[in-house]
Amino acid sequence: MSDFWRSRERTFVVAEIGSNHNRSLGLAKELIDAAASSGADAAKFQIYSASTLYSAKDDERLGYDGANVTKLIEGAATPREWLPELSDYCAARGVIFFAAPFDMAAVDELDAVSGLFKIASFEIVDLPLIRNTASKGKPMIIATGLANMGEIEDAVTACKESGNSDIALLQCASCYPAPPAIMNLRSMETMRRAFGAPVGLSDHTLGIHISTAAVAMGASIIEKHFTIDRTMKGPDHSFAIEPRELAELVREIREIESALGNGMKTGPAAEELTAYGYARRSIHSLVDIKKGTVITKDMLITKRPGHGIRPKYISWVAGRRAARDITSDSWITMEMLD
């Protein structure tokens, strides 16, 4: 089985459409178009049903905008008959289609149309769902909002026992929106070391700066809720980013990736060579030095440009004879010395 996550050379940027299509296939496609135009790698949905997600006895609890739970879910759920068309549309636009399944039927439905799976934070303790999903043999993303290390270990073990080790873990704070103070970005490195898995961030904060910080800290995946318009009605619009912000997020991520480099300190880059010549210091003559004079340190100074002998050799230059007349304020080269 190929290791999808470790084989990727750049951050995997996921535009989380979720329920922000408002049950309009046209809006869903408009969101896919915007995700593709913004440079995102994938467009993600969520597949759930009211009857398999919440007990009917929890129906009195109010959700978004005063709606009870059943009405909220029924009004937000992605119609499952859309799945083949959404998958084909994403492929035509050059983005990867995938989704988070919230029940066993959704796993099978998505297996037919998607090449990877996401386990949402709230589902990390549903080990039967995780085992069934992992058994499909496709790359897995597991979000870890609310989870402690033992629960993460249980989920990872469930995947591996199902024959699937192609796992990535996302740090997540399960608040909507999430305050930056609880994001705990350093936990990405904790999970990477503990489980040997690529890590990333499912980001529910406002704006894009926390996501870009995560990339600088080594995130392999960034998932961000995405909408056409934050003022639209629906549970996830208000904290989502809009197309121009998604495009800016992708641009900043790609720049950060480029800026991270390879970690080697090997001297100037080609773009720095001009500065290397004029801004580095070298040994210069402080006074006129006649040919044949034994040079002393008080005849020398270090200053720019760096065309002469390096300053670290000043003690070696002192004691040499001048091979020619050297005028004051000249950089000193080897040809000037006997």
Give a verbal description of the structure.
The structure is a single chain. This protein is of the alpha/beta class and 338 residues long. It folds into two domains: 12-260, Aldolase class I (TIM Barrel); 270-336, Type Iii Antifreeze Protein Isoform Hplc 12 (Alpha-Beta Complex), CATH 3.90.1210. Helices cover 33% and strands 15% of the residues. The protein has helices spanning 25-38, 50-53, 69-76, 83-93, 104-111, 127-134, 149-161, 187-195, 209-216, 243-260, 273-279, 314-317, and strands at 12-18, 42-47, 96-101, 117-119, 140-143, 167-172, 199-203, 221-225, 282-285, 300-303. It starts with 11 loop residues before the first strand and ends in a 21-residue tail after the last helix.
N-to-C order of helices and strands: EHEHHHEHEHEHEHEHEHHEEH
> What best-fitting shape do the alpha-carbon axes yield?
elongated
Terminal CA distance: 68 Å
In CATH terms, the superfamily of the largest domain is Aldolase class I
- Average pLDDT score: 95
Number of domains: 2
Name the features.
2 domains; 10 strands; elongated; Type Iii Antifreeze Protein Isoform Hplc 12; two-stranded antiparallel ribbon; alpha/beta; 338 residues; TIM Barrel; 8-stranded parallel beta sheet
Please describe the topology of this protein:
Layout: E1 12-18, H1 25-38, E2 42-47, H2 50-53, H3 69-76, H4 83-93, E3 96-101, H5 104-111, E4 117-119, H6 127-134, E5 140-143, H7 149-161, E6 167-172, H8 187-195, E7 199-203, H9 209-216, E8 221-225, H10 243-260, H11 273-279, E9 282-285, E10 300-303, H12 314-317
Parallel strand pairs: 1-2, 1-8, 2-3, 4-5, 5-6, 6-7, 7-8
Antiparallel strand pairs: 9-10
